[in-house]
Structures are given as C-alpha cells and as structure tokens.
Request: fold
Amino acid sequence: MKRLLFYFMFLIPIIGCIAQNPEINETRSGGLTYKEKKDVNKTIRQTNTNTANIALNGAALAPVANAQTDTLYTFVLADANKIVTFNNADTVDVTVPPNSGVAFPVGTVLDFIQLGAGPVIIGPGSGVTLHMYNSDSIMSGQYAVGSVWQYSANTWLLFGNF
Reply:
C-alpha cells in the first residue's frame, strides 16, 4: 500500500509535468495535427505530414514566385528571396547583370525553375564572371531548378539541374 501511495503522490505529478509542455500548442484540424512552439521571435508550425512553415517575427518565409513568360530576362533586385519561373516553349535567355546595373548584396541567392518546354540558358552580363560545373549553363529540362549565388561583386556561382 505504501508503494502504491508513493506512485500516486510523487510519480504521477512528475509524469504529468513531463507530458505537458507549456511551450507547445497542439491543435487538430481536418485530420491533421498541428504543433506550434511558442517563442516571441520565432514560430515553427509543423503538420503530421512533415511539412513546416517557418515564420520569424510574424512574417511568413514562403517564397513568392516571379512568373516570366518572355524569351529574354535579366534578373532584378526584387528577384532576391523569390523563385523566378520561366515558362515558354522557345529558348529563354537569362542574364545575370553586372553590379553596376543591379547592386545585389554579396551573398544574394537567386532561385529559378524552368516550367516550360523551352530550354533556359543562364548567362553573365558584361563584366560578370559566372562559375559553373562543366561549363554547362543550359537547364536540364522542364521542371529543372537552379540558383546563382553572388560571392563577390560581379562573381556568381551557378548550380542546380544543368
């Protein structure tokens, strides 16, 4: 009897404290379970399908698309932190501009996707050095993804499906 009383008096409250974390909100909606960790500066919300939306200071970080349908395009400052999509049946020539034309901060990454059947070719503007694997700047086909990363003024690295 003393042992049973010990469990009820000491272990059950401890287990309850471990099981309930006041920093986690759990809600259920439409068959999904959402877990949200409370934090003043950061909220991470994850569903049971292992997809996560991350927000900092209340601002969503989901990328916004910049849909392009022309056959010529030059990246602009507003393309940073977005995904540029290229959708055309013909060849699309994309230019990474010189720093004198568009002053991207060093460290900028530009992401893009080939949505159309036409090949997408990424090329350097005047005075720009574009480093890439195997000297291949033609995207590998429809739904290919790629990025360019500026690691110094007028010097970029091209990577992705090329």
Notes: Confidence is low (pLDDT under 50) at residues 3-19, 40-57. Residues 64-160 form a domain with the Jelly Rolls fold (CATH 2.60.120).
